[in-house]
Amino acid sequence: MTGIDRSAAPDVLAKSAPDPVPALLLGRLAVDRRYAGLGVGTALALHVLATAVELNEKAACRAVIVTALGQTARTWWERLGFHPFDPQQPDELDLYLLTSEIDATLRRAR
Ligand SMILES: CC(C)(COP(=O)(O)OP(=O)(O)OC[C@H]1O[C@@H](n2cnc3c(N)ncnc32)[C@H](O)[C@@H]1OP(=O)(O)O)[C@@H](O)C(=O)NCCC(=O)NCCS
């Protein structure tokens, strides 16, 4: 778990949230190159998203956040619905997905 400084959070994340905003930090995710493109990374990420929904029911988890490794990884996260913290920054790698958006991502993935 992590906390996001409300003053640094996008409005949609900060609105009616405590300070710091409770979130789940996905610190590191990688798939062995020999098994790339088989859906393992997506399955792992979806498992983390489902965990965030559970955490939100038991305590509070407003969003899942991740720092993409680079622009290619950012595109990969955006496929799952993640948004850049600062959309004005073209090279922004800090991303978030609201817990309230996770259902839609899970439905799209099925
Ligand atoms: C990003 C990563 C985790 C993806 O894992 P994976 O198991 O290969 O991914 P999946 O097989 O689940 O990918 C599914 C889809 O994403 C696409 N995809 C895979 N890697 C991608 C990438 N780097 N950028 C954009 N799309 C990508 C695939 O083409 C596939 O699309 P399709 O379903 O339309 O065919 C893996 O490439 C990796 O370990 N990268 C290095 C570390 C990294 O960048 N980690 C994430 C940053 S925190």
State the shape.
globular
SSE topology string: EHEHEHEEH
Trace the largest sheet across and list its strands: 1-2-3-5-4
Bound molecules: coenzyme A
Radius of gyration: 14 Å
CATH top level is Alpha Beta
Q: β content, as a range?
A: 15-25%
Q: How many alpha or pi helices?
A: 4
- Examine the coordinates and then state which fold CATH places here, giving the name of the CATH topology: Aminopeptidase
Q: What quaternary form is this?
A: single chain
Distance between the termini: 27 Å
Main β sheet profile: 5 strands, mixed
- What's the helical proportion of residues? 25-40%
CATH architecture: 3-Layer(aba) Sandwich
Number of strands: 5
What does the average pLDDT come to?
Answer: 96
Please tell me the total number of domains: 1
Question: pLDDT below 50 for ≥5 consecutive residues: which ranges?
Answer: none
Structural class: alpha+beta
Name of the CATH homologous superfamily? Gcn5-related N-acetyltransferase (GNAT)
Kindly summarize this structure in a few lines:
By secondary structure, this protein is α+β, with helices and mostly antiparallel strands. It has 4 helices and 5 strands, in the order βαβαβαββα.
Characteristics:
single chain, 110 residues, alpha+beta, Aminopeptidase, 39% helix, binds coenzyme A
What does this protein look like?
The protein is an alpha+beta fold and 110 residues long. It has one domain (2-109): Gcn5-related N-acetyltransferase (GNAT) (Aminopeptidase), CATH 3.40.630. It has helices spanning 11-14, 40-58, 71-79, 99-109; strands at 2-4, 21-26, 63-67, 83-84, 94-98. Strands 1-2-3-5-4 form a five-stranded mixed sheet. β2, α2 and β3 (63-67) form a beta-alpha-beta unit. The radius of gyration is 14 Å and the shape is globular. Coenzyme A (COA) is lined by residues 29-31, 36-42, 66, 68-69, 72-73, 75-76.
